[in-house]
Input
Amino acid sequence: MPLADTAVRNAKLGSKTTRRLDEQGLYLEVSPSGGEWTLNH
Output
């Protein structure tokens, strides 16, 4: 499933870094400080 716009917008800050993945290796990584990175791995 692709990374949907709503999934990206609703990504919440937590106590550790989290990732939202899609089926082709693209992911959004959100750090506890609020930084965001989109990577294609």
